[in-house]
Amino acid sequence: MDILIVNLETSFDLSGKKLLADKFDYKFYEVSRFHGASLFIKILLDKIFSLIFIILSSPILIVAMIIIYIEDGFPLLFTQNRTGWDGRRFKIYKLRTLKKENFDKTIQVQDGDKRVLKFGKIIRRYSIDELPQFYNVLMGEMSIVGPRPHMVEHDIKYATLFTNFLKRHKCNPGLTGWAQVNGLRGATPKPEVMRRRMEFDIWYLNNWTIWLDLYIIFKTFYALIKYKGD
Q1: How far is CA 183 from CA 133, 171, 224, in A?
Q2: Are 189 and 110 in contact (CB under 8 A)?
Q3: Pairing between strand 77-83 and 89-95?
Q4: Given a cut of 80, is residue 92 above it in pLDDT?
Q5: What totals of helices (H) and strands (E) does the chain contain, helices first?
Q6: Is 132 exposed, middle or buried (0-12, 13-18, 19+ CB in 10 A)?
Q7: Tens digit of each residue's pLDDT (9 = 90 or more) over 152-204
Q8: Any idea what DSSP says for residue 17?
Q9: Residue ranges per domain, the chain?
Q10: How many C-beta atoms surround the C-beta of residue 96 within 10 A?
């Protein structure tokens, strides 16, 4: 029996002729932590928490919708295709915070962006625009905690830049996540910022537990105050 020992920390090209003229095959397998009883508990908690938060946040949502209507009329909600578990597409819901103008919706909102409504700045500052996503959680398209879903166009772009980027889609995307409570909220104007977010997301996937989810949920309330969103 022949044994080939490969140092994964220094060997990056493990395909084809690099493995002794195609005499050896290299296959890498990963086992997801999202399965069994723990996943069932996560889904159950998602349903319970989403119902509670929908009820508790309904007064805030109603007031925000009224102000959006007064400032800029209908529509009150913004929808966009995002990428879910294993690449499944779903329609995400947010309060509309941008003006009714024709512009490229794939361009991320930056600090001082003139497209943002006056009241939209406050809504985005405290992530009030994200509250309708509890409906996505209730429908099973998202989770309370997980990697934040990006625009499909951005997923395609960054998947070509970072080898491990699509690993972020090995669980349901979340309303909040490990990256967000560590300061990586808002826009990702530079590839380096997205790379850092990806690293936090992959760490979450590799270390996920129910207790980690609960910790992230509680830390999110602190992060909303400390880390400003765009």
Answers
A1: 21, 21, 9
A2: yes
A3: antiparallel
A4: yes
A5: 6, 4
A6: buried
A7: 999 999 999 998 899 999 999 999 999 999 988 877 878 999 999 999 999 99
A8: G
A9: 16-226
A10: 22
